[in-house]
Amino acid sequence: MFGFVCLIAHLYFFIHGFHTVDGKYIGNITEDIENWVPPAEFPEKFPYYISGYDYDNRAILVVELGNSIPYLKRGGQGLEDLGNYVSQFVERVGSGYFTKSPDVNSDAFSDEVIPILDYEGITAEQLFSVENTVFNMDKLGKLNQYYDKIPFGFIVNVSAVTMQFIEMMKPRLGQVFQKMEIYGTQPKVWIPRLLRQLPQDQLNCKYGGVRDCNPVESIR
Questions:
Q1: What radius of gyration do the chain's Cα atoms show?
Q2: Mean pLDDT, to the nearest integer, of 202-215?
Q3: How does pLDDT run across 25-71, given as a tens digit for each residue?
Q4: How far is residue 113's CA from residue 148's CA, in Å, rounded to a whole number?
Q5: What Cα–Cα distance (Å) separates residue 126 from each residue in 59, 132, 133?
Q6: Alpha-carbon distance 54 to 116, whole Å?
Q7: CA distance 207 to 209
Q8: Is the alpha carbon torsion for 180, 184, 187, 188 positive or negative?
């Protein structure tokens, strides 16, 4: 199944060159991509935010992916906007956008990030779509140019079928995803693993922390 989807995805790239159905380039990165303003509903539908900071002052970045699939299937302007949204996120990782401002009493800070990718809500049918495969290989694969900015990370709320998909996609997404620890849909299993490496007081309640479930800083 996955091999067939990848074959179709590669044919799609060859024929369409990463263009949408109406001929527009998906997520064309311009010099001011970091200043691009996404549609108002994007930060609510698929937010990413700084939950806190780890022991080395690296930003803990939560990324919720579950609501993106309908935009992939819709195509047109919605898909182009989603492409720009993800491209903007990738460029922000590379530019140090999430770097913690150094404390006046300390020069210890880092421009690295610790991502927590949350796959809650993604179904097998959505995941194995050609649209999703194309999008992941194009957009998320570009994180590899900032390999040194991501020392490790986590992918959580992954169903059994999704787990197979991610494992098979890893070589195509590059070395960044080799650094990611992947966990299923049982928080009682993966929360202790997160807490071994991340401070509990820097995580919200959904990920085993003592903060409430509101982000420290929503990114818009």
A1: 17
A2: 81
A3: 334 444 578 788 988 888 888 888 999 999 999 999 999 876 665 66
A4: 10
A5: 30, 7, 10
A6: 12
A7: 6
A8: negative
Looking up tokens 């390999």 gives 147
At 106-128, the pLDDT tens digits run 556 789 999 999 988 776 666 66
Query: Rounded to an integer, what distance in angstroms lies between the CA atom of residue 194 and that of residue 22?
Result: 43
Q: 117 phi and psi, to 5 degrees?
A: -90, 120
Q: List pLDDT tens digits, range 61-101.
A: 999 876 665 666 666 787 788 888 888 989 999 999 988 76
Q: Let me know: does 78 contact 128? Beta carbons within 8 Å.
A: no
Cβ neighbours, 10 Å, residue 137: 20
CA distance 66 to 158: 11
Q: How many CB atoms lie within 10 A of CB 103?
A: 10
Interacting residues of 146 by C-beta distance below 8 A, sequence separation 6+: 90, 93, 94, 176
Q: How far is CA 93 from CA 49, 89, 112, in A?
A: 12, 6, 8
In what helix (H) or strand (E) does residue 181 lie, and over which residues does it extend?
strand 180-182
Helix 76-95 crosses helix 130-138 at what angle (to 10 degrees)? 30
In degrees, to the nearest 5, what angle opens at C-alpha 204 toward C-alphas 192 and 182?
45
